[in-house]
User: Fold these one by one.
Assistant:
Number 1:
Amino acid sequence: MTPKLKINKLLQLIGANEDTSFEYDEARTIAAMEKHHAAYSNIIIKVLSIIGGLLAALALIGFLFLAGIYESEQGLLVVGLLFAIGSILASRAIDHVFLDTTVITFYATGLILVAVGMMALEYSFESSILLVALLSCIGIFLSKGYMMVLTAVISLNATIVIFVMERLPTMVLLPVLLIGVVLFVITSLEAKLITSSEIVNSLFAPLQAGYFISFLSCMLFITMGHTFGLFMFYHNPVVLSIGIDVGILLLITKIINKMAVRELKHIVMIYAFALLILACVFYAPYIAGALFILILTYYYGYKAQVVISFVALLYFVFKFYYDLQMSLLVKSGLLFVPGVIMIALWFYVTKQLKHHEEN
Amino acid sequence: MLNISIMEEEKITRQDVHILSRNSNWAEDSVRETLVSSEIYASKSSWTNLLRYTLLGTGIAFTLVGIIFFFAFNWNELHKFVKLGMIEALLIASVSLVLFNKRMDEKIKNFILAGASVLVGVLFAVYGQIYQTGANAYDFFLGWTLSIALWALFSGFPVLWFIFLLLCNTTMVLYEQQVAVNWSKPYLYNVLFLINALFIVLMEFVYNRKLVKDKLRWLISVTSLAATTIITTLICIGIFDNGSENAFTLSVVLALVFFALAVWYGYTHRQLIYLALVPFAVMIIIIALIIQPLREPIGAFLVISVFIIAVTTLLITQLVKLNKRWHDTKIED
């Protein structure tokens, strides 16, 4: 569909509920749609850009270290700052999406070099992490291009988690919860955010994806348990679990409203079933976390994220059963019983839906 | 006329809404309504479908794994016929459900059949345990693969094909370890590459003839990625070993044929995956060629970094152009 046709279709859709005061800049809209379609319509191009950038960054860091840059602490810091700031400026100056790869490479390398350089120069941990966080913030608000903002968001969240991990280890799960809350808020307030201003509108997609990746990475980090995961620092997941569970229940409420479930009996059953599952995995917040992002992204229609969340959930469930310190017979029962319950529920739900459709 | 049909096929995307909103005075409530009405947000029917498939899918998966765990538990007390009989009964029950239940949805039947295919493996494992044939015997996997071959063929279900392909690869690896011990590793990987490449050819044929209803491109992409990775790794290893083995010559020939065919096919059939994979693989091979003769590859790293940036940027630029051209001609048609 050409941009013009798309716009017409959209206008038709809006026409039904929009007053006559609606105005838009046709030329700019068409240009933006064409540009986006050329660059981002294909997932293969996206993946290629990311992998290429990553490989190039690794080779570049390899060169810098082999060439002995680590021998000069100032050199590390200066090169890092040059790379980071230079890439932000470049992303603004050259407005071509295909240069994303190059720019991200230098940006990511720059952030790493700054962190290493600050440490080598024996600056305090706080000031080092603060500088990286600052560069990430500048990256989010001043750079242009989807991938740049995405990288900056992930790096900002990483600095926050690392800071809390080092300085306030008993609160290490709080920033994780915070990332989850921000993800929920951003994703659910899409209409409000994209209409608020042009800048927020452009930032929305990479911000949402960045928080999604950050949250998922945290969940993955938690599953690593006591070896080098987040539980190494603090192993009481109560606050995180409750937070995620509240998020899931909020989403379930939204789904109940959407599906127009009215009967009290059904509503009680849905919540009871949800609470039962959440209670079972209370001490494995990563499962609830994966469920949370799965429902959230499905609700708001982020197809790629749905697939990633689903794969994560499969892995986490596997990990959960693998880690259980119980005999195979007990595990077998713990798998078989929920399986049969779910099949029974499927029969019940199918019957109810059919009954509902017939009425 | 075609324009209209294309317009009806393609949907409004989230990005379209964002772009129009950025360049207009579109009100928040109306944007929200559009996101819902254009089904960018999950509709009621898609939730219903999700609920149906998830409950059934996870239900079957949990039950099956539960059963497998039960068997894996120390069950020496059970008589061997009981062990085999239980799995066979389950197998017969699930296949009967697929064969004789006329009202059941095709998709659900396919998933049950995929579950039954896993059960066949369990049956072989139990047989192996009882008669001490070893759980990783290659003929056990061969038997499993052959037993589900007909189901895979007639179901036309990509998930089942994926299981089948995994089994083919595993069988071959075990065959090399247990029987063809005189094969060199590069030789084995050449064979694995050939199996996967053959699968790609068959699946592309099925895809072009529209012989299956289910989505197939994901499986073709995964298999292409696997085949390209195998052959690229083989060649890189060969380069570092100075290409002394005959198997290396075979790999080079296979790679040349595969890469040429893939690029030709990708270009003529508008499949971007091959046009991305092949140049990327060639790039990796060239990097191996640059590093190999150098004793201290310090400078090479800088060259490689610049090389990767240049090639990837060039590749993306060309793919974007090509994609746009294909898209434009599709509309003009």
Note: Chain A has 16 helices and no strands.
Number 2:
Amino acid sequence: MNSMRPLASRFLLAFDAGSVSGAEVTRGLGRSQLRGFASAPLAPGALVPSPFDRNLLRAEEVRAALDRVLQGLGGKVRRACLLLPDGVGRLALIDHPANASAVEYARFRLVQSLPYPATEAVTDLLPLGRGRSAAAAVRRSVAAEYEALAASAGLTTERLDLTPLAALEALLRQAVGPARTVDLILGDVACCLAGYHGGRLRVLRQRRRDLGPGEEERLRDEVQRTAALAGNGTELRLRVVGAGGRSLRTWLRSAGMVADGGWQLPGSALAPEAGEAAWLGEALA
Amino acid sequence: MTRDFSSRPPARARWSAGERGLVAGAGLVLVLVGGLAVSAWSDHRHASERVQAARQSLADLRSRTQGAESRRGSEDAAVSRAVLTAEAPPGRVLGALAALLPADVRLDGLTLQYGERLELDLRVAARNAQAYDLFLARLEASPLFEGVEPGEEGRDGEVRTTVRASFKRSTS
């Protein structure tokens, strides 16, 4: 017999080039709990994260994977938060003036570097405090692709978020201390690097991944560049989350670096792969 | 957390049940206020019509009153003229004035205007100022005349001036 649920569940559905994943999360009186997790792999080329081109190149395959995820969650999903993969949104660290709307100013700053018309940009941000935010822009037509896919499966989209911002929000809840810290948030085709100095986020970078030989060294070099951009420090501490995070941490440690995960997921024992899901951090941390 | 990159306009379909309840409540209040406003406007219109009718009645009454007063005033003036003519005919008035004139003062002219009162306009010539002053003193002291008003006068030797006065009606 199923146990009583303290509060209604909410569902998250995450998309990336290699898989579609979903989770059921409940928020009771204590911490949030992972109550269900499902993932379905995608064949290469079915979903290609891009900031301006069509992402769902073989939408029927992605839809089939989504259906399997929904079945894995018990077939009870009606509303869900959709998480778009790294490589879809344009991210930037914005210092906005006190007399300006943060979102409007972020939009003003971001649209200058977008490869599509400014009127097609949907902008939002993650406030960091003291007039700083991690802002992002997504092309409206790209967001609409994922919304249409969810609608075709009978789902109502509660909201649309970006996996790197969701992971960054979770990582920001944990104090980094005085040590020079870099967060590496891995997606299937892109990654995001956040550099801290003096306990404050100083640098936010995005890079496309090259999964060929030597990727570990390239990522290590990107981490060191990010740390240098963030400022000098006593030692480098690395937090790695996302796709392939566990193996990369192992490699980095073998290379003599301090590399940890981002968070401990309550209930993740029922789905060990959930511990690597960057998009779950914000919901559970 | 409210971050949202949805392609739809951000304000649409994001209202919570509480917000929808507030909007519904506000709509109900708006309807009630609208009903009260219509009722108040109707009352105001009826009150305005009553005020207009009262004003019209007052205007009619005032018009009738003025007509009556006008008729009564003309009737009173005619009665006064008749009474004064009988009580103070020109001969009597002239006799009374002649009795008051000192030796060095003469009356060059006299105009009598009978109305509600009998107004007198005297043209006076006196050989000297003392004689003229004596005439004014006698005129003011007379029980037959009142409201004595001396006009402009020159006192270089002979005095020629006008004096206005009223005949005092008997109260009996």
Note: The interface with chain B takes residues 84, 89, 122, 124-126, 136, 138, 140-141, 143-144, 147, 157, 159-162, 165, 169, 282 of chain A (CB under 8 Å).
